[in-house]
Amino acid sequence: MRRYLITGTLLLLAGIYLLPLAIYMVGQLLAGPYEGSGALGYIGSIYRAALDGKLAAWSLILSPVLIVMVWSGVFRLRRMNRHRISEKSRTQEPGS
User: DSSP H helical segments within 2-37, as ranges?
Assistant: First the structure.
């Protein structure tokens, strides 16, 4: 359980600090300068949008956590499905 809390916290911090900065830097390379007041202005606009309850801002901030949760869920479902298939094949009689 402790591992999940640490991982979740690190992913949340990445979504809050690293991801907006990375998006700003990639935007600088691809689209040119941001019209606001640089990186802090861009990141501040994301935080203001999140405080205003904008879904896009929350999706951006929480995306690392959500991606890992979905990824983990998919692998758990696959593992459960394999286990069910193997149990089913063991319980079937030979030749049926």
Answer: 2-13, 19-31
Q: Return the domain boundaries, the chain.
A: 2-90
**Nearest Cα to Cα of residue 62 among 24, 26, 13:** 13
Give dist(CA 96, CA 42) in Å, integer: 65
Helix axes 2-13, 55-91, angle to 10 degrees: 140
Q: What is the pTM of this model?
A: 0.71
Question: CA angle, 60 as apex, 47 and 4 as ends, to 5°?
Answer: 105
User: Over 70: is that where the pLDDT of 93 sits?
Assistant: no
Closest to 66 measured CA to CA, from 22, 11, 4: 11
* Exposure b/e, 35-56, CB count within 10 A at least 16 = b: eeeeeeebbeebeebbeeeeee
At residue 4, the pLDDT reads 86
